[in-house]
Amino acid sequence: MKNRFGEAWELLFHPPVAHRGLWSPDGPPENSLGAFQAACAAGYGVELDVHLSSDGEAVVFHDDTLTRMTGLEGRIRDRTVADLAEIRLAGSEEKIPTLLETLALIGRRAMVHIELKTPFGEVGPLEKRVHEIIADHAGPLCIIGFNPYSHAWYADHYPGVLRGLDSWAWTRPATLAEDQRKAYARLEQVELARPHFLALSLDVLPHPRATQLRAEGMPVVAWTVRKPEQWDPVKDHCDNLIFEGFAA
């Protein structure tokens, strides 16, 4: 895989990856162009989240709804990209960027982890639009996300794209049955998703199945590390970290 994915594979291991960019309460907000610029300037990789607007554009935003980051009501998927461009983030002058704008800003300066916020059971439109965009991007990147069906879609249609399967303890998603949550927590979705690496929450690390897969050549990236003391107990079981709130 090292030769197959080239620079992206090398950058999977180092440097550390800034979660939603290098943001801070007194600086640029999360998932903003300012936060991505700061991450690039500091020499970190970049993790970001992508939703689809109502008119089919990939926009960079974490939540399903606008409330937390903008104070407005409604869902991202119910707004056009033009509407979203007028909204400012967390009382700043930063707007909700498109994925196209974000990748143009980053260029080749950082490895980009693009988390697809595809709802469970919905596969296709977001994946297709994201691939249209990343096909013309010259810099290193990978696709990540929790939905194993989204990964399987990429594996079938664009197997040359580096992919990382997100997972965690699966304690809260009300949309999943109890047996499915437990299976996902055991990483049984790996066979369906066919990822190249794992991106695992601290709440499941170290993970016996991940340890086995790592020994077989599948890297493990930890998220979200918010303090250095959170990294120390798991670093021997991981190959990199997605961090926020300190200088990794």
What features would you describe in this structure?
- This protein is α/β, with parallel strands linked by helices and 248 residues long.
- The chain has twelve helices and nine strands.
- The chain has an eight-stranded parallel beta barrel, surrounded by four helices.
- Strand 5, helix 8 and strand 6 (163-167) form a beta-alpha-beta unit.
- Helix 3 (33-42) runs parallel beside helix 6.
Essential attributes:
alpha/beta, TIM Barrel, eight-stranded parallel barrel, 32% helix, globular
CATH superfamily: Phosphatidylinositol (PI) phosphodiesterase
Structural class: alpha/beta
Shape: globular
- The radius of gyration over CA amounts to 17 Å
> What is the CATH topology classification name?
TIM Barrel
- In CATH, the architecture is Alpha-Beta Barrel
Q: What's the rounded overall pLDDT mean?
A: 96
Count of helical regions: 12
The helix fraction, in percent, is 25-40%
Q: Strands across the major sheet, in which order?
A: 1-2-4-5-6-7-8-9
Largest beta sheet, briefly? 8 strands, parallel, barrel
Broad CATH class: Alpha Beta
Count of distinct strands:
9
* SSE series: HHEHEEHHHEHEHEHHEHEHE
Portion in strands: 15-25%
The protein's oligomeric status is single chain
Distance between the termini: 26 Å
Domain module count = 1
Low-confidence stretches: none
